[in-house]
Amino acid sequence: MTLDEKSVQNSITQWIVDMEGAPGTLYEGEKFQLLFKFSSRYPFDSPQVMFTGDNIPVHPHVYSNGHICLSILTEDWSPALSVQSVCLSIISMLSSCKEKRRPPDNSFYVRTCNKNPKKTKWWYHVLKLIKG
């Protein structure tokens, strides 16, 4: 992952990070861009993070508008997290994917959501084990 230096020169509160899919994963060789927007309360308030550009990854937790359903971007945010650790979490999320597909509610969400993904009340899916 690399920071687009031009984006930082244009605005210290808005960064573009270029990243590539990890080797041996469904996203190997694919290039993506993440947009980070920092408020004046950063690092106590999480940055707004979303995919941007021409290649939004097809993933069960990534909407076609670039919004990412990942708990560390909202309720599980910690000021100890850095841009690098957020990027590593997103790479890890992509790397664990077994099938490229959009979230089941993608069409509805994209039509009705706020432009700021932090304004979304995310419902994180929990794997439930049923004893039989």
First-residue to last-residue Cα separation? 44 Å
Mean pLDDT, rounded to whole units?
Answer: 91
Radius of gyration, in angstroms, nearest whole number? 15 Å
Which blocks of ≥5 consecutive residues have pLDDT under 50?
126-132
Please name the CATH architecture. Answer: Roll
Strand content: 15-25%
Shape estimate:
globular
Quaternary class: single chain
Helix content: 10-25%
Structural class category = alpha+beta
Structural domains: how many: 1
- For this structure, the CATH topology is Ubiquitin Conjugating Enzyme
EC number: 2.3.2.23, 2.3.2.25
Organism: Lepidothrix coronata (blue-crowned manakin)
GO molecular function, one term: ubiquitin conjugating enzyme activity
Protein name: N-terminal E2 ubiquitin-conjugating enzyme
